[in-house]
């Protein structure tokens, strides 16, 4: 059977049966309305959000048999289709994604539909670890020593390294022997993907030919090239749910409510004590659950500030504008940061040594190879295979460092991935149609330390309304300049013998809005960056951690919400600055440290 997906008034493209079946299976399972069996209306701890942090906290806190723990998740259960490493871009079509979009901007995302950047976030047990590309990258010593220098005592690199190690089960033999930086005893399996293309080998060799070392990028420094360390076990995605929550679901003191949207934190206005939450779970009336000890928000960089503001904790003027009664005036929603890149740095090849997404979506043989043998291209995490970290300027604490991430295909090579990105169809047909059936690859020059800051705000006081996301990309021009330096490094990489062996060549057809700029000039690339803005999906910072002297701090260094007792935040939103790696690993670390902070407060240990 052939399905047609209308992409313009004059064109329709074929959607494969394999893709259609995948989306239907994920949709059916994640849409199944299942709630945890709630045996009590009162708990010791209530955790809001079943993502990376929530799953870790649920496991660690329920280790204390006298503590009753409730985990509330807005989405459903993870399923086996979501665990296929190759297809995260397909999952964005399903109910497992919140389907957030940013606001229109005068500085970025011009090439996205309606000018709105696409921000996938996980609405499922396991959170965004069910949708992401499974790359395990911690960042470097300077990131966390920088947090400590801002007044966050206890968050320096030497302090937080044990919490990275607590979760980790390193299975790469050459790294597992390094007991200073790695552990083999945790729940989170880290491995190299089983399958590797010739393009990935050429990319890494190109980095070596340019004078860089092959490195373990999860140590003090990350400069160099490497294959990806990934959260994959037995050729399937090893999410927060699989690693931490699923093995302990039968604990009598742990209760999980799915398809339940928390709408408010209950706070006694006189004592300023958080005593529970209110949530919707399909019943006609909201349900309340009470917390004897603490409410912990682990809903992420978008939902945690949204929930705080809905509960009366946030900027006074903004809350009053939307009609929310103010309990605590706080800089909630500010300090939004993200890793962002250029999405159309494409290179063609004269041999089939990478991935062809146009073939993969119809590759029933490849699917059979995956399900029967746990091998083949379906084990590659979202088509990404290798990366390099390079200094691109005056390197002071890593400010001018970029990541070059290899994608073994191009987004235009698959209509499905193009539309999951959210890019305009006219750009696809005007400039990139020749790439649909051509051997080509992408290098993403990722800005690791953005200077620009955005903000999350409420659109209204309806908890079912998505908040307003002002990403504010490239409001600071230095970010553009650093990405352009990364582009130059990427093109240099393709001129090495390792990649010239396969005829690597910069794709020279430009998008129409940038045609008046000289090809490959800085102005040309700036135009492309502002049009083809691509987020790496690492938003952080909207509930900033800081000391008492920091007027922008929402939580203290123990992650307790300022001005309200028995309420904490534990997720990526507390990061004062975004680390120079991917954010999944740091969120696991934050949750592990939070669990110990809570146990110290309530048990004295």
From TrEMBL:
Keywords: FAD, Flavoprotein
Cofactors, names only: FAD
Keyword Transferase in record: no
Presence of the UniProt keyword Lipid metabolism in the record: no
Domain Glucose-methanol-choline oxidoreductase N-terminal positions: 122-145, 300-314
Chain positions recorded as FAD binding sites: 124, 128, 262
GO molecular function list: flavin adenine dinucleotide binding; oxidoreductase activity, acting on CH-OH group of donors
Annotated catalytic residues: 538 (proton donor), 582 (proton acceptor)
InterPro entries registered for this protein in UniProt: FAD/NAD-bd_sf, GMC_OxRdtase, GMC_OxRdtase_N, GMC_OxRtase_C
Gene3D superfamilies: FAD/NAD(P)-binding domain, Glucose Oxidase, domain 3
Entries under Pfam families matching the protein: GMC_oxred_C, GMC_oxred_N
Cited PANTHER family: GH23626P-RELATED, GLUCOSE-METHANOL-CHOLINE GMC OXIDOREDUCTASE
UniProt similarity note: Belongs to the GMC oxidoreductase family.
Protein name according to UniProt: Glucose-methanol-choline oxidoreductase N-terminal domain-containing protein
Lineage: Eukaryota, Metazoa, Ecdysozoa, Arthropoda, Hexapoda
């Amino acid at each position: 059977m052939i399905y047609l997906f209308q992409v313009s008034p004059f064109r329709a493209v074929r959607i494969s049966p394999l893709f259609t079946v995948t989306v239907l299976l994920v949709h059916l399972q994640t849409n199944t309305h299942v709630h945890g069996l709630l045996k009590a209306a009162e708990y010791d701890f209530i955790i809001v959000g079943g993502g990376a942090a929530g799953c870790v906290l649920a496991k660690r806190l329920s280790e204390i048999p006298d503590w009753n723990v409730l985990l509330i998740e807005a989405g459903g259960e993870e399923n086996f289709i979501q665990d296929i490493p190759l297809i995260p871009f397909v999952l964005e079509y399903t109910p497992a994604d919140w389907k957030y979009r940013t606001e229109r901007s005068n500085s970025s995302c011009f090439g996205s539909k309606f000018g709105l950047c696409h921000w996938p976030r996980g609405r499922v047990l396991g959170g965004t670890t069910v949708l992401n590309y499974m790359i395990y990258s911690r960042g470097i010593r300077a990131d966390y020593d920088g947090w400590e220098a801002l007044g966050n005592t206890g968050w320096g690199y030497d302090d937080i390294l044990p919490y990275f190690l607590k979760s980790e089960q390193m299975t790469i033999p050459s790294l597992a022997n390094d007991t200073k930086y790695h552990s083999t005893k945790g729940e989170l399996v880290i491995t190299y993907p089983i399958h590797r293309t010739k393009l990935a080998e050429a990319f890494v060799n190109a980095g070596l030919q340019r004078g860089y070392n092959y490195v373990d990028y999860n140590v003090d420094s990350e400069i160099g090239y490497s294959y990806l360390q990934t959260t994959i076990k037995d050729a399937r995605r090893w999410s927060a749910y699989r690693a931490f929550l699923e093995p302990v679901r039968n604990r009598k003191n742990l209760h999980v409510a799915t398809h339940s949207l928390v709408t408010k934190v209950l706070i006694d206005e006189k004592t300023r004590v958080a005593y529970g939450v209110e949530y919707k779970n399909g019943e006609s009336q909201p349900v309340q659950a009470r917390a004897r000890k603490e409410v912990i928000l682990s809903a992420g960089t978008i939902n945690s500030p949204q929930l705080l503001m809905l509960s009366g904790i946030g900027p006074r003027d903004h809350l009053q504008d939307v009609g929310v009664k103010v309990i605590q005036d706080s800089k909630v929603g500010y300090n939004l940061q993200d890793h962002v890149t250029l999405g159309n740095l494409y290179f063609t090849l004269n041999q089939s040594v990478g991935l062809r997404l146009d073939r993969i979506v119809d590759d029933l043989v490849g699917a059979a190879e995956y399900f029967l043998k746990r091998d083949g291209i379906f084990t590659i995490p979202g088509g990404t295979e290798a990366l390099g970290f390079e200094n691109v300027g005056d390197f002071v604490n890593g400010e001018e460092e970029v990541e070059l991430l290899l994608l073994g295909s191009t987004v235009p090579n698959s209509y499905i991935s193009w539309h999951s990105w959210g890019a305009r169809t006219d750009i696809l047909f005007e400039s990139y149609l020749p790439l649909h059936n051509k051997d080509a690859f992408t290098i993403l020059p990722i800005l690791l330390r953005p200077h620009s800051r955005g903000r999350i705000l409420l659109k209204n006081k309806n908890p079912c309304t998505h908040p307003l996301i002002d990403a504010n990309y490239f409001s600071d021009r230095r970010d553009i300049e650093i990405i352009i330096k990364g582009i130059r490094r990427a093109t240099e990489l393709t001129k090495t013998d390792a990649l010239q062996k396969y005829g690597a060549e910069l794709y020279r057809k430009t998008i129409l809005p940038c045609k008046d700029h000289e090809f490959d000039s800085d102005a040309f690339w700036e135009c492309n960056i502002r049009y083809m803005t691509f987020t790496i999906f690492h938003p952080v910072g909207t509930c900033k951690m800081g000391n008492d002297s920091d007027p922008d701090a929402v939580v203290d260094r123990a992650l307790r919400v300022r001005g309200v007792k028995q309420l904490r935040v534990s997720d990526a939103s507390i990061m004062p600055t975004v680390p120079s790696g991917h954010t999944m690993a740091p969120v696991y670390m934050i949750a592990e440290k939070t669990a110990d902070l809570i146990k110290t407060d309530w048990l004295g240990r």
